[in-house]
Amino acid sequence: MKKVTMDDVLNKDIMELIIPGDKVAHVQVDNPLEHALLVLVKTGYSAIPVLDPSYKLRGVVSKTLILDSIFGMERIEFEKLSEHKVWEVMNDTPPVLKTNESFLDAIKLSIDHTFLCVEDQYGAYQGILTRSALLKYLNHYLRDNKNKESACLES
Ligand code: 4BW
Q1: Closest Cα to atom 23 of ligand 1
Q2: Is 66 strand, coil or helix?
Q3: Is 3 exposed, middle or buried (0-12, 13-18, 19+ CB in 10 A)?
Q4: pLDDT per position as a tens digit, 103-140
Q5: In which element (H, E) is residue 62 found?
Q6: What is the CA radius of gyration of the chain?
Q7: Position in ligand 1 atom list of the atom nearest CA 24
Q8: Does ligand 1 lie within 6 Å of residue 67's CB atom?
Q9: The pTM is what?
Q10: Residue 123 CA to ligand 1 centre (angstroms)
Q11: Domains in the chain, ordered, with CATH?
Q12: Do residues 4 and 142 touch, judged by C-beta distance below 8 A?
């Protein structure tokens, strides 16, 4: 694998690290909650993007948000799963990274979010950038440099 330098890291094009939209599980704003819960459970993800029919990002929905919305005072109101739609419970201010933002911007936003939704300059949804993709890239850089330092000390 090619050695990664500090400049490579700072200038890394985040588009090289994203999971493209067609490989990201998502639901539609108007889907019933039961469909969203099914997608979340079957894919194994705890949260996924919400898109509209024109494939624009509208929010993020999670198992926690859905389950929280069906807990009544005295019982779990399962009927709400078919009566309510994703847009009613989703987080409509998800963390968004623009494709022209830097690797450091991505790291900063990822401190509080397991994944970032990525949009281009026109607001078109491109996919997601996960915290693990960022950590994997940083891990590669840090290990490379540790090995280089050890080699210098030995010579
Ligand atoms: O199905 C899975 N396959 C793999 N390879 N890893 C998984 C899977 N489910 C969970 N994981 C692992 C990943 O390391 O657990 C981490 C936390 O999962 P999450 O948040 O709580 O469901 C995963 O970390 P990650 O790869 O950094 O992903 C961060 C978050 O991004 C996930 C999920 O909410 C979202 N995500 C990742 N890949 C996705 C996705 N959402 C939709 N479609 C995808 N392809």
Answers
A1: 132
A2: helix
A3: exposed
A4: 999 999 999 999 999 999 999 999 999 999 999 999 98
A5: strand 57-62
A6: 19
A7: 43
A8: no
A9: 0.91
A10: 24
A11: 6-154 (3.10.580.10)
A12: no
